[in-house]
Specification:
Layout: H1 4-9, E1 17-20, E2 24-28, E3 36-42, H2 58-73, E4 81-84, E5 100-104
Antiparallel strand pairs: 1-2, 2-3, 3-5, 4-5
This protein binds adenosine monophosphate and zinc ion (ZN).
Length: 113
């Protein structure tokens, strides 16, 4: 499949990895919008939140566990951070492999839309 983030998981495209296990991969966003901007993705190809179902949803809970661990590691767990997943055109999704932006390290704009 011609998917940018599948290629990153497979090592065909380089990335700055910050975490990996059997089901999850996390790496630095190439165009950070905050001092900490990490993308956390399932290794399994899911296009967006629309693909989440009873069979595969355990990985989503695991992604949040990884987010909490990384927030601690990057020193942002106390001051705060945000997890964002854009789904589809109206949300501005540009890469169609499900991903969660972990954003922190500054006071984030509270505008949600
Ligand atoms: P979204 O707009 O929510 O689909 O987010 C896609 C994100 O992927 C953007 O923040 C991009 O900066 C990021 N991105 C695109 N290509 C790469 C890459 N090769 N390595 C790391 N991050 C990337
Ligand atoms: Zn993919």
């Amino acid at each position: 499949m011609d998917c940018l983030f599948c290629k990153i998981v497979n090592g065909e495209i380089p990335s700055t990895k910050v975490y990996e296990d059997e089901t999850v991969y996390a790496f630095k966003d190439i165009n950070p919008v905050a001092p900490v901007h990490v993308l956390i993705i399932p290794k399994q190809h899911l296009s967006s939140i629309n693909d989440v179902n009873a069979e595969n949803s355990a990985v989503i809970a695991h992604i949040y566990e990884v987010a909490a661990k990384l927030a601690k590691e990057f020193g942002i767990s106390e001051n705060g951070y945000r997890m964002v997943s854009n789904c589809g055109a109206d949300a501005g999704q540009t890469v169609f492999h499900l991903h969660f932006h972990l954003l922190g390290g500054k006071k984030l704009n509270i505008k949600m839309c």
